[in-house]
Design brief:
- With 142 residues, this protein is of the alpha/beta class.
- Helices cover 22% and strands 28% of the residues.
- The chain contains 3 helices and 6 strands.
- The longest helix is centred in the N-terminal third of the chain and has 20 residues.
Length: 142
């Protein structure tokens, strides 16, 4: 009985060790640009100023996440993972943004076209250290 118990503990320890080697992530990878005011009107809420969170952490959805307008109001966790220039990303910094617009029809042009998401100036500067046209991101719907 003692041998079976020890073997079972060794087996469980082995599985625990192996499971730690495979970190599961539920996030997607994409690209982000930024845009500047004026932000109104938006495709989601037109001229309603109250659509913007008080933190100013909001974004316009690109074609990949627009979902025919269903993305309006959705919240995403966004993290900068890389950029063409080293040191651009703030390490381990994640922000939560709300979708308020559709990037291709936004009043202000994004810094780069055809990205997954276009972040407000405040949101973009929250995850970057230096100026950049676009960054690679990890994002997840909340």
């Amino acid at each position: 009985m003692q041998i079976q118990k020890r073997s079972l503990l060794q087996l469980l320890s082995y599985f625990l060790l192996i499971s730690q080697l495979f970190h599961l992530s539920h996030a997607d990878v994409g690209t982000a640009a930024h845009y500047s005011p004026p932000y109104l009107p938006t495709a989601c809420y037109s001229d309603d100023q109250s659509q913007f969170p008080s933190s100013n952490l909001f974004a316009a959805a690109g074609d990949g996440i627009w979902d025919n307008g269903a993305s309006c109001g959705r919240q995403y966790l966004v993290r900068c993972i890389s950029a063409s220039r080293p040191g651009t990303c703030v390490p381990d910094q994640t922000i939560q943004v709300q979708i308020v617009d559709y990037a291709p029809t936004a009043t202000s042009s994004p810094s780069t076209q055809s990205t997954t998401i276009v972040l407000s100036e405040t949101a973009f500067s929250g995850i970057t250290n230096i100026a950049a046209e676009s960054i690679n991101i990890e994002f997840q719907q909340v």
